[in-house]
# Entry
Amino acid sequence: MNFTISPSSGVPIYRQMYEQLEKRILSGQLSAGEFVPSVRSIATKLQVNPMTISKTYSLLEERGYLVRVRGKGMQVAVRENHDVSNDRQKLIVAQISSLIEESQQLGMTIPELKQLMLDVLAKEGAK
Amino acid sequence: MNFTISPSSGVPIYRQMYEQLEKRILSGQLSAGEFVPSVRSIATKLQVNPMTISKTYSLLEERGYLVRVRGKGMQVAVRENHDVSNDRQKLIVAQISSLIEESQQLGMTIPELKQLMLDVLAKEGAK
Amino acid sequence: MNFTISPSSGVPIYRQMYEQLEKRILSGQLSAGEFVPSVRSIATKLQVNPMTISKTYSLLEERGYLVRVRGKGMQVAVRENHDVSNDRQKLIVAQISSLIEESQQLGMTIPELKQLMLDVLAKEGAK
Amino acid sequence: MNFTISPSSGVPIYRQMYEQLEKRILSGQLSAGEFVPSVRSIATKLQVNPMTISKTYSLLEERGYLVRVRGKGMQVAVRENHDVSNDRQKLIVAQISSLIEESQQLGMTIPELKQLMLDVLAKEGAK
DNA sequence: GTGGTCTAGACCACA
DNA sequence: GTGGTCTAGACCACA
# Structure
């Protein structure tokens, strides 16, 4: 499993790891029951302090994404009503909402924002 | 002029102030040539250390939003291509792009995202 | 007499005025015996605090460029051995020296700097 | 690493430090990837407040000279077009240009200035 | 009156 | 260990 971290980005390494793992779980690239790499193996590979990876895993455990299996490692949690697409949707909807709020604070109208979104989507979709 | 700060939010106060001022300048609520409140007046009002506000102003100066007028205070900069709507647009477009990228990392398709955006916009527009 | 000041440049206004007047005296544009405009007339014209201009004049007086004539104003001083070209030269030589020092701190050699100077001079001379 | 500061020079300490570090980076004495001394170690050595050094580092970071590596310190940035000699040259050329401009405001001709430069260079080169 | 600089010292996140 | 943020309070230059 590959991870990309940028120690100088300002974003804490443990958060960078968190986000990459969360995305893989939410998108189904990591599926329930699967084991994630050990803290040590990742720490060695990325040349990072093991405590940092440990912090990432603890956070993922706390939020229900991972389950600690004693003596074996961390496993992707089997979540009840595990509607992946629903999780995803909530995450994206929240971001759209905050984008709307911000655009309004900047004095942009809803129709203007809508037009902008459609423009950018069209451009990206064409890639 | 009113500001809202939340000392317990984790976001540094000087950054909170920065964002509020940047938004007001970009949205034209503060227009070129206008003087912003003095460091001391804001510090007193918000019960915050003057150096904290000073840091905000230095940042805004460094980025070209404010101009220091010695002995008189800080003034909103007259920017050459002061096409406010253009600044705003760039800021929002960048955020839409990163939202698209993220949704794709989560395994969502462009049409799905588009539908979601339209739904949320419709809901917000109706408020 | 015209002056150009930029209140937002960071350079104190009294220094900006000082430099402009010093240059005019050193270059002979203002000659000995001539009266400079009154503090008030400049202050009004430039929309500047009279104390600021006063500070400029005091500095020029202190350094022997101006002489206070009671009831009449400030006069360009008649300086003994008033070799304008010599003053000028000292001023420029000092700056060339500090340029050499700086270029060496940056790891540039004397021949490199010499070449650079000749290049820039050739370019400017052709204008 | 040694630094020289003069608290009584009028130039803010954080600026004095900035200039010394900028020069060492531009001259290649500090090379990309290298870690600069910690805020605290410099502060202790120079008997100066850590915040003062921190301000220097923030400025160097903002301008792209240093990169903050969380929990580890500040590292000299790897810059894309890291043509050190080019950076240096621009800095010096800008100063030569402004020297030419100034000499002309003082009524000196280009040939006179050229002669003066050659004289001073010859004297310095002989040291 | 304005903002800038600095100290001494505290507490925090991150590794 | 690293740097970041903030306070309380002093002193300074400038207008």
About this structure: Residues 81-126 of chain A form one domain. Residues 121 and 127 of chain A are 10 Å apart (CA to CA). The helical segments of chain A are 13-26, 39-46, 50-62, 84-105, 110-125. The longest helix of chain A spans residues 84-105.
